[in-house]
Fold this sequence. Notes:
This protein is of the alpha+beta class. The protein has three domains: 4-124, Translation, Eukaryotic Peptide Chain Release Factor Subunit 1, Chain A; 126-235, eRF1 domain 2 (Nucleotidyltransferase, domain 5); 255-337, CATH 3.30.1330.30. Helices cover 42% and strands 24% of the residues. It has eleven helices and 13 strands. It has a five-stranded mixed beta sheet with strand order 7-6-5-8-9, sandwiched between helices. It has a four-stranded antiparallel beta sheet with strand order 3-2-1-4, with helices on both faces. The chain has a four-stranded mixed beta sheet with strand order 10-13-11-12, with helices on both faces. It is globular, with a radius of gyration of 22 Å. It starts with a helix and ends with a strand. The relative contact order is 0.12. The model has no long low-confidence stretch (mean pLDDT 88).
Amino acid sequence: MLTWDDIRAIDAIADPLGVVSIYADRPDETSGRLVPAVSLAGELRRLETDLAAADDEVATAFRRRMRDVRPALTRMLEGRAPGRALFAPLSTGEVFEMAVGMPVGLAAVVEGTAYVRPLVAALDEGRPAGVIVDDGPSLRLLAWRMGVIEEVGTYRSSALPRTRPARALAREVQAVARERGWARVVVAGDGRLAHILARSAAPPEGEVSVFTRSVAGVGPRGLATALAGVLSEAQRRYEWRLVERVIGAGLSDEDAVLGPGRTRRALDQRLVKHLLIDTEHDHRWFEGLPPAPSRWPDRDPAEDLIERALHSGADITPVEGPARRPLGAAEGLAAILH
């Protein structure tokens, strides 16, 4: 399962002519392979045109490598994982393929090193979460991470809200949440017990959601599918609260910095503990950012900031949804400091 160390190892893939990084999601069951295949082909043609306009040597190497990796591209569209990625240095015959437990979108990029921004977004979205399932005669505690659910424990219950098993589960959830770094907990059940557990089992500074449809007897795979939407909504709420806390701390000069200049300097000094970045913001003109190398046109400035955070061991949250609005007051960049 994807980790920060995995992403750092992939980011270390480098080549003097560049590394082509290709991302694609699992084809939709209704449309099949045709739609993503056409979309991917379009992305690759666009990239080839951009490279040809910037550097003939890079463009020639790219065309040669695309012929070499055709079997791997076919496998990308046939894989069962939600997301897949491919990394191919242009100067060598190496091809690195990986399956990702979360969607990664569609992208084709050539830069001096492997392009990891989609992996960072997938890992952030797939952060560990807790799941409590009210099965009626029992309460199940499960752990969700990167789209996969595993059992943690089962508690017998008389289905009464204030029973000893329910209180014991609430305490255990809080302890496990601290130990496993859960910022989200979902309580699945359609009874009063679920709502009481949602209040009493909340992790510190975490988000708790109640999934009111019954999932009694549903297995781990079906449960992961059923809860995908509510987990995503909880992540958006978590990001909103995180951005609010960081902006408040930054305005009071309390272990946080706001804006491109201060955040970039803190990254360079390896002072950043947690980077918050709106990856849809135009970071191109941020103070101190180097111009894109001429060999690789339109290098993603957000990638430069993400790589600096990776190299210093900082946590990274690419902010999505409504939380982008308050982060916009800091020009899309903020950081918690050590």
